[in-house]
Amino acid sequence: MQPTARERFLRLLHAAVGDGALVKLTLSRHRSADPTLQNLLVRPVTLQAGPRLSLVWRHATRDITKNFPPAEALALLAPLIGGDFLDAHLFTAAQTAQLTCQPDGTARLRVKASAAPAAGVVLPPAPDSSSPHDQPKSHLVPTNAAWLRALGVTNDTGQPRAGMADKFRQIQKFSELLTHLATEAGFATDEALHVADMGSGKGYLTFATAALLGPRATVRGVEQRPELVALCNRIAHENNFPHLRFTAGQIANLGTEQRQAEIAPATDVVLALHACDTATDDALAYGVAAGARLLIVSPCCHQELRSQLSAPPVLAAALRHGIFQERQAEFLTDALRAQLLEWAGYRVKVFEFISTEHTAKNLMLAAIRAHPSGNPTRAAGVRELAAFYGIHTQRLATRLGFNLTQS
Question: Is 252 inside a domain boundary?
Fold first, then answer.
């Protein structure tokens, strides 16, 4: 009998650990009883007691790190792969392997050669390197920023902590994108700005925004978990960010004039990075209503449209498969969002935020206001797309007062 995709992945993992070739292992799409657990990161370390595998359980508000002898770690990881975690990414110097499992037990394995040895995981060399070619890479957000240390991203030497290298890259990549998009939106370098970050979480990118734009920008993070609001406000105070404040609240409740005024008297930029399902739509609707000139979202968890999805005849056979339904619902949700924003008067870009090596939620949608009075010529295209898939309602359309079924 041929080995299953999961069995082949486990063999690759054992071989990588045994040969000393393991760079890192990332487990995601968590589905156990603990809703706060997000992913599990594994990397080799060398301690006084000898080689170990360091396991970092990433929770919403904390990380838990434990080190195990390799054999013990592998025994612990085996039932988690395809069990508590449906996705697994293995990185070695020579290749990467991606295991994608479904709740029904089916799985797919993809293996490809690495572009370069240990690509994407080599940390910057120390500042006292003797060769000018070995000097640390210049970052928009300095690696020694005190707020990065306070949030647990970097250590005292400015290096990413265990399990935080991907988050560090995400912060730097977002900072580059925000710089370019702010210029493209026409913001003057000395212009006072009001920024709202919807669903700010632990505030990694909210702090990056405040640091990048400086005192000219009033930045407000909105987060429903009060413990994260308190944590971020404390770090903002301790690290001299008087223009940064976090507020407790749900994105869906920010439509009233009173709640909007609590966030900012006017809003120029709206961010919503990995806001779940229709929370992305609520953030976009808030930005449109506020007249924001720049909207940046990275959607997550596309659940709303799947139950409505009615397969067009040409796609009926393909959409009998659940995975195709899921991906089609993701595509359709974000395509409708893009077209609705164009109807509302925005120029829209859709692109990859960061490599899927670092995060599975990598789509980014950026909208720059181009027609303050809207662009009604886009209405027909929105309705045609919705009708093709049998969609009658969608959250952003409802929030914007757009009737998807109007002839």
Answer: yes
